Amino acid sequence: xxxxxxxxxxxxxxxxxxxxxxxxxxxxxxxxxxxxxxxxxxxxxxxxxxxxxxxxxxxxxxxxxxxxxxxxxxxxxxxxxxxxxxxxxxxxxxxxxxxxxxxxxxxxxxxxxxxxxxxxxxxxxxxxxxxxxxxxxxxxxxxxxxxxxxxxxxxxxxxxxxxxxxxxxxxxxxxxxxxxxxxxxxxxxxxxxxxxxxxxxxxxxxxxxxxxxxxxxxxxxxxxxxxxxxxxxxxxxxxxxxxxxxxxxxxxxxxxxxxxxxxxxxxxxxxxxxxxxxxxxxxxxxxxxxxxxxxxxxxxxxxxxxxxxxxxxxxxxxxxxxxx
Length: 324
What we know:
The protein has about 325 residues and is α+β, with helices and mostly antiparallel strands. The protein has helices spanning about 10-25, 35-50, 90-105, 120-130, 145-150, 170-185, 205-210, 210-225, 265-270, 275-280, 285-290, 305-315; strands at about 1-5, 50-55, 60-70, 75-85, 110-115, 160-165, 190, 200-205, 230-235, 240-245, 250-255.
């Protein structure tokens, strides 16, 4: 494998790689640019910054384009970086990155920067292993959605359900009738049997009051002497579940631990799911719990919250009751 400078004469070669890159990455239409739009910027980078091609057995297999300290950035900023799938895991990406370091130092630049889509997990893992850290977040919203949200002062609705591991539907209903007046005033409570061995409780107050759902889960677990799982979709953005055993909450998961504010690292980690506990209390496969009950720094990094809640409920063997 060799690395050489790209030139204006490499237009056709670069275009082939660039279009492969765009096709592989995909993304929403409003973020896509055409080759005719991209080439003038790439050519400017070749002339004033760094444009490199990786060649293996005479065939181009990758490129890197890097702007050195202009356009408002005091970094060696990588604008385009791609290695063909069949050429990956051979050190080509690392070699391309290494080539930009000397030029960056010559310009007095002490940082290298780049942008990566949140869903491009393979690339993000590589960059994180190399020491890159996130310093900002590009966000987008449809104009009509933003207009709707700006016109409303209230956050989106939240919904929740509690699941009691018992066939004693009448016992659960008696307990809910006794406990809810002490917890708070609720417009309705509904107790229904399920075909999977869990009695489901839906309550209006617990939908929007996390502390009420937590208290009811604790009381039901203690009274019935069985595990209780509380599921919640909060503000149509994040998913939470709580596990109760013998009157104690033993685990709590929140899909975006910092959604309601910054946390120290210990508290953030504490809001990750405990697959072992989930398995012991619900019979779920720990590997599936680990794979589905993921956490992230923003909701955008995860599936839509309703979809994620459905996935988690399915893994735990429960029926998410949020369609109301």
